[in-house]
Amino acid sequence: MNFPTPKLISFRDEVTSVENTTYLTHSLYYHPAKFIPQIVRFCLDNYYNGNGAVLDPFAGSGTLGVETAINGYKTYLLDINPLLNYFYPIKIPKFSIADWEKHVSDSKIVITDLLNKQNKSSIEINNHLNYWYPEQLYSFFNNLWNNFYKQEKNNDEIVNKIVTLVLFKLSKQYSYAEHSMPKLFSSKRKRKQINELLEDNNILFEKINKSVKTYLLNIDKSVKQLLNINLNSNLEYFSGVDAYSFDYSKLSELSCIITSPPYLQAQEYIRTFKLEMMWAKISNEEIKQFSNKEIPFRKTEGIIHGRYLDSVRNKIKRKDLLNLFDSYFWYTIKTLENASKRLVKGGKLCVLIGNPKMSGVEVEIWKAIYEYFLNELNFKSVAVFEDRIKTRKLFKGRNNQNPDGMKSEYLIVLEKN
Question: Which among 83, 85, 116, 350 is least buried, having the fewest CB atoms inside 10 angstroms?
Protein backbone atom coordinates (compact mmCIF):
# COMPACT_ATOMS: atom_id res chain seq x y z
CA MET A 1 0.00 0.00 0.00
CA ASN A 2 1.15 3.51 -0.80
CA PHE A 3 0.57 5.79 2.16
CA PRO A 4 -0.21 9.47 1.58
CA THR A 5 2.19 12.15 2.73
CA PRO A 6 0.55 13.83 5.75
CA LYS A 7 -0.36 17.47 5.29
CA LEU A 8 1.38 19.75 7.78
CA ILE A 9 -1.08 21.71 9.92
CA SER A 10 -1.27 23.55 13.21
CA PHE A 11 -4.72 22.94 14.66
CA ARG A 12 -4.16 25.69 17.21
CA ASP A 13 -3.55 28.18 14.40
CA GLU A 14 -6.20 26.73 12.11
CA VAL A 15 -9.09 26.90 14.60
CA THR A 16 -9.16 30.52 15.75
CA SER A 17 -12.65 30.23 17.27
CA VAL A 18 -11.17 28.23 20.18
CA GLU A 19 -9.38 30.63 22.54
CA ASN A 20 -6.98 28.12 24.07
CA THR A 21 -6.79 24.49 25.14
CA THR A 22 -8.10 25.22 28.66
CA TYR A 23 -11.08 27.45 27.86
CA LEU A 24 -14.59 26.68 29.20
CA THR A 25 -14.49 23.50 31.34
CA HIS A 26 -11.64 21.79 29.49
CA SER A 27 -9.32 22.14 32.50
CA LEU A 28 -11.90 21.27 35.15
CA TYR A 29 -9.79 18.36 36.40
CA TYR A 30 -6.31 17.08 35.55
CA HIS A 31 -6.36 14.40 32.90
CA PRO A 32 -3.34 12.82 31.15
CA ALA A 33 -2.84 13.23 27.38
CA LYS A 34 -5.97 15.29 26.78
CA PHE A 35 -7.53 15.65 23.33
CA ILE A 36 -7.15 19.38 22.61
CA PRO A 37 -10.44 21.14 21.70
CA GLN A 38 -9.04 22.69 18.50
CA ILE A 39 -8.72 19.23 16.92
CA VAL A 40 -12.24 18.24 17.91
CA ARG A 41 -13.64 21.53 16.59
CA PHE A 42 -11.71 21.10 13.32
CA CYS A 43 -13.23 17.64 12.83
CA LEU A 44 -16.75 18.82 13.68
CA ASP A 45 -16.51 21.84 11.37
CA ASN A 46 -15.09 19.90 8.43
CA TYR A 47 -16.35 16.33 8.69
CA TYR A 48 -19.62 16.29 10.62
CA ASN A 49 -22.74 17.05 8.59
CA GLY A 50 -24.93 18.07 11.53
CA ASN A 51 -27.12 14.95 11.29
CA GLY A 52 -26.86 11.81 13.37
CA ALA A 53 -24.78 11.28 16.48
CA VAL A 54 -21.09 11.74 17.27
CA LEU A 55 -19.06 9.19 19.27
CA ASP A 56 -15.77 9.08 21.14
CA PRO A 57 -15.12 5.48 22.33
CA PHE A 58 -11.95 6.60 24.18
CA ALA A 59 -13.53 9.73 25.68
CA GLY A 60 -11.07 10.45 28.49
CA SER A 61 -11.54 13.98 29.78
CA GLY A 62 -14.64 14.53 27.63
CA THR A 63 -13.29 17.14 25.20
CA LEU A 64 -15.70 15.99 22.49
CA GLY A 65 -18.67 16.31 24.85
CA VAL A 66 -17.89 19.94 25.68
CA GLU A 67 -17.43 20.92 22.03
CA THR A 68 -20.59 19.16 20.80
CA ALA A 69 -22.68 20.52 23.70
CA ILE A 70 -22.07 24.04 22.40
CA ASN A 71 -24.10 23.11 19.30
CA GLY A 72 -26.48 20.58 20.87
CA TYR A 73 -25.21 17.65 18.79
CA LYS A 74 -26.26 14.19 19.95
CA THR A 75 -23.12 12.73 21.50
CA TYR A 76 -21.97 9.45 23.02
CA LEU A 77 -18.89 9.17 25.23
CA LEU A 78 -17.37 5.89 26.44
CA ASP A 79 -14.44 5.44 28.79
CA ILE A 80 -13.02 2.81 31.11
CA ASN A 81 -12.55 5.35 33.93
CA PRO A 82 -15.40 4.98 36.48
CA LEU A 83 -14.73 8.42 37.95
CA LEU A 84 -16.23 10.14 34.92
CA ASN A 85 -19.57 9.83 36.73
CA TYR A 86 -18.20 12.60 38.96
CA PHE A 87 -16.59 14.74 36.25
CA TYR A 88 -18.94 14.75 33.25
CA PRO A 89 -22.13 16.06 34.93
CA ILE A 90 -20.15 19.18 35.96
CA LYS A 91 -17.94 19.46 32.90
CA ILE A 92 -20.82 19.02 30.42
CA PRO A 93 -23.78 20.39 32.43
CA LYS A 94 -27.51 20.00 31.76
CA PHE A 95 -28.65 22.50 34.41
CA SER A 96 -29.35 26.23 34.16
CA ILE A 97 -27.03 28.97 35.39
CA ALA A 98 -29.54 29.82 38.15
CA ASP A 99 -29.47 26.19 39.32
CA TRP A 100 -25.69 26.22 39.16
CA GLU A 101 -25.40 29.31 41.37
CA LYS A 102 -27.52 27.60 44.03
CA HIS A 103 -25.46 24.39 43.72
CA VAL A 104 -22.23 26.34 44.25
CA SER A 105 -23.66 28.24 47.22
CA ASP A 106 -24.83 24.99 48.83
CA SER A 107 -21.46 23.34 48.10
CA LYS A 108 -19.62 26.11 49.96
CA ILE A 109 -21.80 25.49 53.02
CA VAL A 110 -21.24 21.72 52.87
CA ILE A 111 -17.45 22.00 52.48
CA THR A 112 -17.12 24.64 55.19
CA ASP A 113 -19.11 22.44 57.53
CA LEU A 114 -16.93 19.43 56.71
CA LEU A 115 -13.70 21.34 57.31
CA ASN A 116 -14.92 22.74 60.62
CA LYS A 117 -16.63 19.63 61.94
CA GLN A 118 -13.91 17.00 61.58
CA ASN A 119 -15.71 14.36 63.67
CA LYS A 120 -13.26 11.53 64.14
CA SER A 121 -14.05 8.25 62.42
CA SER A 122 -12.64 4.79 63.05
CA ILE A 123 -13.86 3.57 59.66
CA GLU A 124 -11.00 3.06 57.22
CA ILE A 125 -12.15 3.81 53.65
CA ASN A 126 -9.32 1.87 52.00
CA ASN A 127 -6.38 0.12 53.64
CA HIS A 128 -3.98 1.27 50.89
CA LEU A 129 -4.57 4.96 51.43
CA ASN A 130 -2.32 5.50 54.44
CA TYR A 131 0.76 4.93 52.25
CA TRP A 132 0.11 8.28 50.55
CA TYR A 133 -0.01 10.48 53.66
CA PRO A 134 1.77 11.21 56.91
CA GLU A 135 -0.30 9.94 59.82
CA GLN A 136 -1.80 13.32 60.73
CA LEU A 137 -3.00 14.12 57.22
CA TYR A 138 -4.24 10.59 56.65
CA SER A 139 -6.42 10.90 59.75
CA PHE A 140 -7.61 14.33 58.60
CA PHE A 141 -8.67 13.16 55.14
CA ASN A 142 -10.13 9.89 56.39
CA ASN A 143 -12.36 11.87 58.78
CA LEU A 144 -13.21 14.40 56.08
CA TRP A 145 -14.37 11.80 53.58
CA ASN A 146 -16.24 9.73 56.17
CA ASN A 147 -18.13 12.80 57.37
CA PHE A 148 -19.02 13.60 53.78
CA TYR A 149 -20.38 10.10 53.17
CA LYS A 150 -22.52 10.34 56.30
CA GLN A 151 -24.33 13.39 55.00
CA GLU A 152 -24.26 13.02 51.21
CA LYS A 153 -27.77 11.52 51.09
CA ASN A 154 -29.08 14.87 52.39
CA ASN A 155 -27.46 16.87 49.59
CA ASP A 156 -28.44 17.57 45.99
CA GLU A 157 -26.73 15.23 43.50
CA ILE A 158 -24.83 18.05 41.74
CA VAL A 159 -23.77 19.51 45.11
CA ASN A 160 -22.28 16.12 46.00
CA LYS A 161 -20.37 16.02 42.72
CA ILE A 162 -18.96 19.52 43.26
CA VAL A 163 -17.89 18.62 46.80
CA THR A 164 -16.37 15.35 45.60
CA LEU A 165 -14.46 17.19 42.88
CA VAL A 166 -13.01 19.58 45.47
CA LEU A 167 -12.16 16.75 47.86
CA PHE A 168 -10.45 14.81 45.06
CA LYS A 169 -8.23 17.80 44.30
CA LEU A 170 -7.55 18.52 47.96
CA SER A 171 -6.76 14.91 48.87
CA LYS A 172 -4.26 14.62 46.04
CA GLN A 173 -2.55 17.99 46.41
CA TYR A 174 -1.87 17.37 50.12
CA SER A 175 -0.59 13.84 49.63
CA TYR A 176 2.81 12.40 48.77
CA ALA A 177 1.61 11.95 45.17
CA GLU A 178 2.81 14.19 42.35
CA HIS A 179 -0.63 15.64 41.64
CA SER A 180 0.17 17.30 38.30
CA MET A 181 1.89 14.32 36.68
CA PRO A 182 0.52 11.29 34.83
CA LYS A 183 0.75 8.00 36.71
CA LEU A 184 0.42 7.90 40.48
CA PHE A 185 3.75 7.90 42.30
CA SER A 186 5.26 9.22 45.50
CA SER A 187 8.18 11.61 45.12
CA LYS A 188 10.91 12.90 47.44
CA ARG A 189 9.92 16.44 46.48
CA LYS A 190 6.32 16.00 47.59
CA ARG A 191 7.28 14.13 50.76
CA LYS A 192 9.62 16.96 51.72
CA GLN A 193 6.98 19.58 50.89
CA ILE A 194 4.23 17.86 52.90
CA ASN A 195 6.47 17.18 55.89
CA GLU A 196 7.54 20.84 55.95
CA LEU A 197 3.88 21.91 56.00
CA LEU A 198 3.29 19.72 59.04
CA GLU A 199 5.79 21.76 61.06
CA ASP A 200 3.11 24.41 61.59
CA ASN A 201 -0.52 23.24 61.72
CA ASN A 202 -1.87 26.77 61.47
CA ILE A 203 -0.06 27.37 58.19
CA LEU A 204 -1.07 23.93 56.91
CA PHE A 205 -4.79 24.42 57.50
CA GLU A 206 -4.67 27.98 56.23
CA LYS A 207 -3.27 26.57 52.98
CA ILE A 208 -5.90 23.85 52.88
CA ASN A 209 -8.71 26.38 53.33
CA LYS A 210 -7.18 28.65 50.70
CA SER A 211 -6.91 25.70 48.28
CA VAL A 212 -10.59 24.84 48.79
CA LYS A 213 -11.62 28.42 47.97
CA THR A 214 -9.39 28.41 44.87
CA TYR A 215 -10.79 25.08 43.64
CA LEU A 216 -14.38 26.25 44.09
CA LEU A 217 -13.69 29.59 42.43
CA ASN A 218 -12.06 27.95 39.39
CA ILE A 219 -14.81 25.35 39.02
CA ASP A 220 -17.50 28.02 39.32
CA LYS A 221 -15.78 30.31 36.82
CA SER A 222 -15.27 27.64 34.14
CA VAL A 223 -18.80 26.20 34.40
CA LYS A 224 -20.37 29.69 34.26
CA GLN A 225 -18.30 30.44 31.18
CA LEU A 226 -19.82 27.42 29.50
CA LEU A 227 -23.39 28.06 30.68
CA ASN A 228 -23.25 31.65 29.47
CA ILE A 229 -23.09 30.54 25.83
CA ASN A 230 -26.60 29.03 25.84
CA LEU A 231 -25.42 25.46 26.20
CA ASN A 232 -27.64 22.72 24.77
CA SER A 233 -26.14 19.44 25.95
CA ASN A 234 -27.47 16.29 24.28
CA LEU A 235 -25.03 13.85 25.82
CA GLU A 236 -25.19 10.20 26.85
CA TYR A 237 -22.10 8.74 28.44
CA PHE A 238 -20.97 5.32 29.63
CA SER A 239 -18.43 5.45 32.44
CA GLY A 240 -16.29 2.50 33.55
CA VAL A 241 -17.00 0.48 30.38
CA ASP A 242 -14.72 -1.52 28.12
CA ALA A 243 -14.97 0.08 24.67
CA TYR A 244 -13.78 -3.15 23.03
CA SER A 245 -16.62 -5.35 24.30
CA PHE A 246 -19.26 -2.59 24.48
CA ASP A 247 -22.55 -3.28 22.68
CA TYR A 248 -22.61 -0.49 20.09
CA SER A 249 -26.10 -1.51 18.94
CA LYS A 250 -27.31 0.45 21.99
CA LEU A 251 -26.37 3.65 20.16
CA SER A 252 -28.29 5.43 17.42
CA GLU A 253 -26.66 5.71 14.00
CA LEU A 254 -23.44 7.70 13.92
CA SER A 255 -22.41 10.36 11.43
CA CYS A 256 -18.96 10.83 12.92
CA ILE A 257 -16.47 9.18 15.27
CA ILE A 258 -13.83 11.53 16.67
CA THR A 259 -11.34 9.92 19.01
CA SER A 260 -7.77 9.65 20.25
CA PRO A 261 -7.00 6.07 21.35
CA PRO A 262 -4.51 5.30 24.12
CA TYR A 263 -0.92 5.68 23.02
CA LEU A 264 1.18 2.55 22.71
CA GLN A 265 3.58 3.57 25.49
CA ALA A 266 1.09 5.54 27.64
CA GLN A 267 -0.03 2.77 29.94
CA GLU A 268 -1.44 2.79 33.46
CA TYR A 269 -4.24 5.24 32.75
CA ILE A 270 -6.27 3.83 35.64
CA ARG A 271 -3.32 4.23 38.00
CA THR A 272 -3.37 7.99 37.34
CA PHE A 273 -6.73 8.10 39.14
CA LYS A 274 -6.11 5.37 41.71
CA LEU A 275 -5.92 7.72 44.71
CA GLU A 276 -9.27 9.31 43.81
CA MET A 277 -10.79 5.89 43.19
CA MET A 278 -9.80 4.72 46.65
CA TRP A 279 -11.36 7.81 48.28
CA ALA A 280 -14.46 7.19 46.14
CA LYS A 281 -14.78 3.80 47.86
CA ILE A 282 -13.92 1.78 44.79
CA SER A 283 -12.35 -1.39 46.16
CA ASN A 284 -8.79 -2.48 45.43
CA GLU A 285 -10.15 -5.51 43.58
CA GLU A 286 -12.38 -3.35 41.38
CA ILE A 287 -9.48 -1.02 40.61
CA LYS A 288 -7.41 -4.03 39.60
CA GLN A 289 -10.20 -5.22 37.30
CA PHE A 290 -10.29 -1.85 35.55
CA SER A 291 -6.49 -1.89 35.19
CA ASN A 292 -6.56 -5.38 33.69
CA LYS A 293 -8.84 -4.13 30.90
CA GLU A 294 -6.51 -1.32 29.88
CA ILE A 295 -5.00 -1.38 26.42
CA PRO A 296 -2.50 -3.08 26.01
CA PHE A 297 -2.28 -4.95 29.35
CA ARG A 298 -4.74 -7.68 28.45
CA LYS A 299 -3.89 -10.88 26.63
CA THR A 300 -4.69 -10.46 22.97
CA GLU A 301 -7.50 -12.44 21.36
CA GLY A 302 -5.84 -12.35 17.96
CA ILE A 303 -3.22 -10.67 15.79
CA ILE A 304 -3.86 -7.90 13.27
CA HIS A 305 -1.91 -8.49 10.08
CA GLY A 306 -1.04 -6.05 7.34
CA ARG A 307 2.01 -5.24 5.27
CA TYR A 308 2.97 -2.31 7.47
CA LEU A 309 2.25 -3.99 10.84
CA ASP A 310 4.02 -7.21 9.86
CA SER A 311 7.11 -5.28 8.74
CA VAL A 312 7.33 -3.54 12.14
CA ARG A 313 6.53 -6.72 14.07
CA ASN A 314 9.51 -8.47 12.47
CA LYS A 315 11.85 -5.81 13.88
CA ILE A 316 10.76 -6.28 17.51
CA LYS A 317 12.92 -8.89 19.23
CA ARG A 318 11.78 -8.76 22.86
CA LYS A 319 8.89 -11.13 23.52
CA ASP A 320 7.26 -8.92 26.18
CA LEU A 321 7.23 -5.93 23.81
CA LEU A 322 5.92 -8.09 20.98
CA ASN A 323 3.03 -9.24 23.20
CA LEU A 324 2.30 -5.62 24.11
CA PHE A 325 2.48 -4.63 20.43
CA ASP A 326 0.01 -7.32 19.33
CA SER A 327 -2.36 -6.63 22.21
CA TYR A 328 -2.33 -2.91 21.55
CA PHE A 329 -3.18 -3.15 17.87
CA TRP A 330 -5.77 -5.88 18.33
CA TYR A 331 -7.80 -4.01 20.94
CA THR A 332 -7.32 -0.54 19.46
CA ILE A 333 -8.19 -1.44 15.87
CA LYS A 334 -10.98 -3.86 16.79
CA THR A 335 -12.56 -1.26 19.08
CA LEU A 336 -12.55 1.25 16.24
CA GLU A 337 -13.95 -1.39 13.89
CA ASN A 338 -16.75 -2.34 16.32
CA ALA A 339 -17.66 1.31 16.84
CA SER A 340 -17.57 2.08 13.10
CA LYS A 341 -20.31 -0.48 12.44
CA ARG A 342 -22.75 2.19 13.65
CA LEU A 343 -21.42 4.73 11.14
CA VAL A 344 -23.81 5.59 8.31
CA LYS A 345 -22.62 5.40 4.72
CA GLY A 346 -20.47 8.46 4.17
CA GLY A 347 -19.85 8.79 7.91
CA LYS A 348 -16.39 9.92 8.97
CA LEU A 349 -13.85 8.28 11.27
CA CYS A 350 -11.36 10.82 12.68
CA VAL A 351 -8.49 9.33 14.70
CA LEU A 352 -5.64 11.26 16.32
CA ILE A 353 -2.54 9.32 17.34
CA GLY A 354 1.23 9.70 17.73
CA ASN A 355 4.25 7.67 16.63
CA PRO A 356 5.95 6.04 19.64
CA LYS A 357 9.11 3.97 19.55
CA MET A 358 9.48 0.34 20.53
CA SER A 359 12.90 -1.31 20.68
CA GLY A 360 14.19 1.80 18.91
CA VAL A 361 11.74 1.29 16.05
CA GLU A 362 9.27 4.08 15.28
CA VAL A 363 5.72 2.69 15.17
CA GLU A 364 3.55 4.80 12.89
CA ILE A 365 0.21 3.84 14.41
CA TRP A 366 -1.77 5.88 11.90
CA LYS A 367 -0.45 3.71 9.08
CA ALA A 368 -1.63 0.52 10.78
CA ILE A 369 -5.16 1.93 11.27
CA TYR A 370 -5.20 3.44 7.77
CA GLU A 371 -4.11 0.20 6.08
CA TYR A 372 -6.59 -1.98 7.99
CA PHE A 373 -9.62 0.24 7.38
CA LEU A 374 -8.90 0.68 3.67
CA ASN A 375 -7.95 -2.92 2.91
CA GLU A 376 -10.15 -4.89 5.31
CA LEU A 377 -13.19 -2.63 5.78
CA ASN A 378 -13.31 -0.81 2.44
CA PHE A 379 -13.15 2.68 3.94
CA LYS A 380 -12.05 5.59 1.77
CA SER A 381 -9.19 7.94 2.59
CA VAL A 382 -10.22 11.56 3.12
CA ALA A 383 -7.16 13.23 4.68
CA VAL A 384 -4.06 12.69 6.82
CA PHE A 385 -2.66 15.62 8.82
CA GLU A 386 0.56 16.03 10.79
CA ASP A 387 0.45 18.48 13.69
CA ARG A 388 3.94 19.19 15.03
CA ILE A 389 3.95 19.55 18.79
CA LYS A 390 5.30 22.99 19.73
CA THR A 391 4.09 23.75 23.23
CA ARG A 392 4.48 20.38 24.94
CA LYS A 393 6.61 17.28 24.82
CA LEU A 394 4.74 14.05 25.33
CA PHE A 395 6.58 11.80 27.81
CA LYS A 396 9.85 13.75 27.43
CA GLY A 397 12.58 12.69 29.83
CA ARG A 398 10.63 9.82 31.35
CA ASN A 399 12.07 6.34 31.73
CA ASN A 400 10.33 4.75 28.76
CA GLN A 401 10.77 3.90 25.10
CA ASN A 402 10.38 7.58 24.07
CA PRO A 403 12.77 9.66 26.23
CA ASP A 404 12.88 12.52 23.72
CA GLY A 405 9.12 12.76 23.41
CA MET A 406 7.07 12.56 20.24
CA LYS A 407 7.49 15.35 17.74
CA SER A 408 4.12 15.13 15.97
CA GLU A 409 0.60 13.82 16.21
CA TYR A 410 -1.33 12.55 13.21
CA LEU A 411 -5.00 12.94 12.39
CA ILE A 412 -6.39 10.46 9.88
CA VAL A 413 -9.85 11.00 8.40
CA LEU A 414 -11.58 8.05 6.73
CA GLU A 415 -15.01 7.69 5.15
CA LYS A 416 -17.29 4.66 5.31
CA ASN A 417 -18.31 3.36 1.86
Answer: 116
